[in-house]
Amino acid sequence: MEPRLTLNSRQKQMLALLLQASAPVTLKEMAGELGLSVRTMQRELEGISRRLVPFGVTLIKKTGVGLSVEGSEAARKQLLQQLSVSPSLKIFSPEERRHLLIRLLLTKREAVKLFYFSSKLDVTEATVSNDLDKLEPWLAKHRIALVRKPGLGVYIEADEKSIRAAMIDHLYEHLSQEQLMDMLSSYSLSFTNQRKLELSIRNHLLHFIDPGIIGQIEEIVRSSEMRRGYEMTDSAYVGFVVHIALAVQRLKSGENISIDAEALGKLKAAGEFKWAQQMAEELSARLDIDIPESEVGYITMHLLGAKGKRILATAGELQERGAEAYAARMIRIVENELKLTLENDPSLYEALLVHLEAAINRIRLHMEIRNPLLAHIRETYPDIFEAAAKASRYLQEELQAEVPEEEIGYLAMHFGAAVVRTKTISPQRFRVLLACSSGMGTSRLLAAQIGTSFPHVHIVDTVSLLHLEAAIHKHSPIDLIVSTVPFEHETHRVVVVHSFLEQDDIELIETHLHGLPLIGTTAREAYTEIEDTVMTVNRYGEGVVQLTNHLFFADGLEAASKRESIAAAAAFAGSVVPGIPAPQLEGDLLQREELGGIVVEESKLAMLHCRSTAVPVLMACVLRFAQPLSWQAPGQDADVRTVLLLLAPRSAPKEHIEMIGEISAMLIEEDFAETVAGAPFDLVQKELKSVIGQGYMNRTGVFFRGTQ
To answer: Is 405 exposed, middle or buried (0-12, 13-18, 19+ CB in 10 A)?
Structure first.
């Protein structure tokens, strides 16, 4: 009987390296190649040596020479073949263990012994206990108590509302709003990566939600929207579908949610309660499940807080709700306060009407409202804020309910954009969409160069190839797609250029733009609905916090080649952020670099960047090497002493990518590149934070200036 080889993933990597090496390999060389510590290598080697005996090969260790695997050519070949087909014992990183523990605790109804967790994670019970200690603050934040009872095990205590909230938060830790939109969207991309993305998302959803029912839930929600002449925004729609899917799964598991009787009574008085009841009845019939009245109440709350637009309602219906009259009166109040005419701005009236329909419900039901931009709005636009506050006092009198400052801040955003629109004449511009393989550093750099070379071009968005079709749909009409990656599109012109624009690229873009009709920026394009605006700006803020908290520097790194420097970069990232598997990150960096790199020859500076599932947060690292490296890139061969490493999670939302892209976009500035390459690290850190901060202000400011 042919022997079977059972190794963990680290041991398989080590053995494969030794079997393919033409000469003995030292522990230090192996550690550098695989991104592991020498101590870890020594521990894993003991397990490898024992398992090689049945295969007729021996692990040889020679002091001062290195390690090798000795045996016949046939035996070595058989062993390599076994490596390719034998299953790996999964080694979980601390971060992976954390996520798995969260999922197990939230879904287990009974106490679980530490031995269960330790066998599931292949670690000691002491490690599990330590992991649980680190997990307690996260659970406490969600009002969940972690209970440990000797002889019984570990379990959580919390009400169902808190458990569901924790599940939703955990889901969004893995998946961005953009990814969930991709999965729930009606259009499909022509790229094979879309299928991989959908499978990844479905795997995450499987932990708390049955993906098989999502399509049925979507059908019910969409048909219900059509009957009522209502269309939710994308973000509200995704949140609503995920809420219902989770509720159904929990009900199937026998977990019911409770609601305060007084609160339920107020919800029943809302017209949305009947809408929620109708959807609950359809869900019950389609999914063969009983949905109690408490669940209907929570569905109603989601409908009341959802942002959308009424597409079939008559003026009379809207007046019954009061929103139309309120919107018109509030616009007149702001006009009087600011001495401006706003009544001819259809974008303001439409957006304010949509906002008020949801806001009135939130105010009447005293729902908690959060506005992370409140302080910024008050300080930067005091006149507009005061005018909005006066309009809100009118609304408060009409509703006989307090309008919180957070809501006033949102109203000020609407009025602020309208005020600037009255003072701004939009130039006639070509509409260009930028694309690259990742949507991160390369396209942002390209955007900065095109903005300098073509002032008459309006860059509507910068996206990865994976999200190209969605961007075309969102920003239509598009005059031209400019990409750093060769591809063809069925309906749109594509111009392929270098990451650093060359004269040939500029001429090529000019040739394609010549003769195209100019399209003016419309009021619709100049204004974003308030909910999406706040979510967008909030994600920009998250990106700033992640980046400024994860700026790292290293000096005197050793590497003899570009390949070794990439391995060193991955190893450094793994050393400063626990849980990053260096070999995986190295592979992702190499794969991205094959698509084209960026080198600033004058500053001896190169940029490495990628989006990777190995990376948990946005990171920027400045790495200086002891000796110059020969850095070959398409059309370039330069000496490099400094590497700017920009990393983002694969699931990072678009706004996070744009914030890290602010750094790469600055490489066209000679002073910035020189600072990164040669200045003391404290000055580099100060410069990077300045660039990130300025990028944040520029990007969030567009929501008040009214134009992109």
So the answer is: middle
C-alpha Rg value of the chain to the nearest Å:
29
pLDDT, position 707: 37
CA–CA distance, 482 with 596 (Å, rounded to integer): 15
Count of CB atoms situated within 10 Å of the CB of 288:
8
In this structure, the strands spanning 551-557 and 598-600 are unpaired
Question: Is 80 exceeded by the pLDDT of residue 528?
Answer: no
**Stretch 16-33: mean pLDDT:** 82
Q: pLDDT at position 620, please?
A: 95
Of 384, 405, 380, whose CA–CA distance to 339 is shortest? Answer: 384
Handedness of CA 323, 324, 329, 335 (dihedral sign): positive
Using one digit for the tens of pLDDT, what is the confidence trace for 584-613? 999 989 888 877 778 888 889 999 999 888
In this structure, which amino acid lies at residue 371? N
* Tokens read off for 677: 């390459």
Q: How far from the centroid of its chain's Cα atoms is residue 449's Cα?
A: 26
Output the DSSP codes for 193-245.
HHHHHHHHHHHHHTTTS-GGGHHHHHHHHHHHHHHHTEEE-HHHHHHHHHHHH
Domain 315-421 in the same topology as domain 168-310: yes
pLDDT in tens, 337-367: 888 878 777 778 877 887 887 788 778 766 6
Q: Give the whole-angstrom CA distance, residue 524 versus residue 27.
A: 62
CB of 136 within 8 A of CB of 146? yes
β 480-483/519-520 pair status: unpaired
Domain 7-89 has CATH 3.40.50.1110: no
CATH for 536-692, options being 3.40.930.10, 3.40.50.2300, 1.10.10.60, 3.40.50.1240: 3.40.930.10
Assign domain 168-310 to a CATH class.
Answer: mainly alpha
Residue 534 makes CB contacts below 8 A (sequence gap 6+) with 371, 372, 373, 410, 413
Q: How far apart are CA 162 and CA 688, in angstroms?
A: 39
Q: How far does CA 541 lie from the centroid of its chain?
A: 13
3-state secondary structure of 153: strand
